[in-house]
C-alpha cells in the first residue's frame, strides 16, 4: 500500500536562517516560518491564529536559503513532516515536529538579482536525517 508524507506551506520567515555544517561537511540551514489563519467566529468576531513551523534544508538548498532568506521574507516551502523525540539533560522527554524541505520558492516583491530567474531553488536529492 502506498503512503504519502507531504506538506506545502506559504508563510513569512520569522528570523534570519541559521546555517551549520555536519561533521561530514554537509550544509544544514534551519529557519522558522509563520502561517496565518483568519476566520470569523459564530458571533461575527474576526480572529487570526498564527502557526509556526521549523524548516530544515540540506546541502545546496541550505546554502541558498541561508544566502537569500531573511526575517520577514515570504516563502513557499514543500517537503515532509518529521517528528523527533529526545531526552533533555534534565531527564525530560521532548518532541519536535519539523519540515524537511525539498523545494523552496522565494516569494514577495523583494527581487534579488542573484536569484534564479523564477526565484525557485529545487535540488535533486535532499536528505532529511
Ordered list of secondary-structure elements with their pairings:
Elements: E1 7-13, E2 18-21, E3 27-40, E4 46-58, H1 59-68, E5 74-87, E6 93-106, E7 120-121
Parallel strand pairs: 4-6
Antiparallel strand pairs: 1-3, 1-5, 2-3, 3-4, 5-6, 6-7
Provide key terms for this protein.
mainly beta; OB fold (Dihydrolipoamide Acetyltransferase, E2P); five-stranded mixed β-barrel; 7 strands; globular
What does it look like?
There is one protein chain. This protein has 129 residues and is mainly beta. It contains 1 helix and 7 strands. It has one helix spanning 59-68, and strands at 7-13, 18-21, 27-40, 46-58, 74-87, 93-106, 120-121. The protein has a 5-stranded mixed beta barrel with strand order 1-3-4-6-5. A hairpin with a 5-residue loop joins strand 2 (18-21) and strand 3 (27-40). It is globular.
What is the gist of this entry?
The chain has a single domain (7-121), classed as OB fold (Dihydrolipoamide Acetyltransferase, E2P). The chain has one helix at 59-68; strands spanning 7-13, 18-21, 27-40, 46-58, 74-87, 93-106, 120-121.
The string of secondary-structure elements, in order, is EEEEHEEE
| Overall mean pLDDT | 87
Helix count from the secondary structure assignment? 1
Q: What CATH architecture would you give?
A: Beta Barrel
Task: Say how many strands there are.
Answer: 7
CATH fold type? OB fold (Dihydrolipoamide Acetyltransferase, E2P)
The CATH superfamily is: Nucleic acid-binding proteins
Overall shape: it is globular
Low-confidence stretches: 111-119, 121-129
Evaluate the radius of gyration. Answer: 17 Å
Strand content: over 45%
Tally of individual domains? 1
For the largest sheet, list the strands in their spatial order: 1-3-4-6-5
Amino acid at each position: 500500500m502506498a503512503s504519502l508524507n507531504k506538506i506545502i506551506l506559504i508563510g513569512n520567515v520569522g528570523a534570519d536562517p541559521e546555517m551549520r555544517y555536519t561533521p561530514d561537511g554537509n550544509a544544514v540551514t534551519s529557519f522558522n516560518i509563520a502561517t496565518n489563519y483568519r476566520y470569523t467566529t459564530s458571533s461575527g468576531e474576526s480572529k487570526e491564529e498564527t502557526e509556526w513551523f521549523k524548516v530544515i534544508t540540506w546541502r545546496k538548498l541550505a546554502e541558498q536559503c541561508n544566502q537569500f532568506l531573511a526575517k520577514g521574507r515570504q516563502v513557499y516551502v514543500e517537503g515532509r513532516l518529521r517528528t523527533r523525540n529526545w531526552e533533555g539533560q534534565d531527564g525530560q522527554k521532548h518532541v519536535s515536529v519539523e519540515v524537511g524541505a525539498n523545494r523552496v520558492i522565494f516569494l514577495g516583491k523583494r527581487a534579488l538579482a542573484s536569484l534564479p530567474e523564477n526565484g525557485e531553488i529545487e535540488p535533486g536529492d535532499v536528505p532529511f536525517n
